[in-house]
Amino acid sequence: MTTPDHIDPFDRRRITRISKLLSSLLRHNAVKAKLNIRSDGYLAVSELFSLGSFRDVTMEQIEYVVRDNDKQRFHLMFEDDQWWIRANQGHSIEVKDIALDRIIDPPPVVIHGTKLACWDLIKTTGLKTMGRQHIHFSAGLPGDKDVKSGVRWTSEIFIYIDASKAMADGIEFYRSYNGVILTQGKDNILAPIYFERVVDKQGLLLK
Predict the structure, then answer these.
(1) Which of 4, 123, 133, 203 has the highest CB neighbour number within 10 Å of its CB?
(2) Where are the chain's structural domains?
(3) Fold for the domain defined by 101-200
């Protein structure tokens, strides 16, 4: 599919729209859309182009989204004479064979960012997968060197996790292709006993 000459194919709004479409399909709606997503999360790009929502999207735009996304949400590969794309994490659909590296040594920093309004519930019930396969964490704060994803810039509080204690209790942590730290906790919950400290954006200690 080509884009008319008078339209910038890499306009920020257009690229953001494509990124959101990819996230929706690859993380949540591929099965509902009757797409043949593999157990490792990869989907043939040719299948995307069969959808009406991608009728004006080009391969160059998809490559741009994958390459320039600041959170490195997606990965492209060329296999069996065609392009495949996957979301690196954040799935609510089952992708049991997605490549994740199990963390053996507890990371020194494991942070979950969220809204202040969520804290009253989280401090009593813990962090939950919320319909996804994992709870997401970063190895630092937004803006820290090498932190590409795992915590939103809009986060108002930051929950530091005692990974050593959690792993000693048998909780497994993994690292995705783009550096996000992931866990299912126990029964899809990471209990408050593993919260080391909680601070707001100004560094004020909440716990």
Answers:
(1) 133
(2) 12-87, 101-200
(3) ADP-ribosylation fold (3.20.170)
The Cα–Cα gap between 54 and 43 comes to 14
User: Hunting for tokens 């996304």 — which residue is that?
Assistant: 69
Regarding the domain delimited by 12-87, which CATH topology (the fold level of the hierarchy) does it fall under? Arc Repressor Mutant, subunit A (1.10.10)
pTM as predicted: 0.70
CA distance 106 to 80: 38
What are the tens digits of pLDDT across the range 153-167? Answer: 678 899 999 999 999
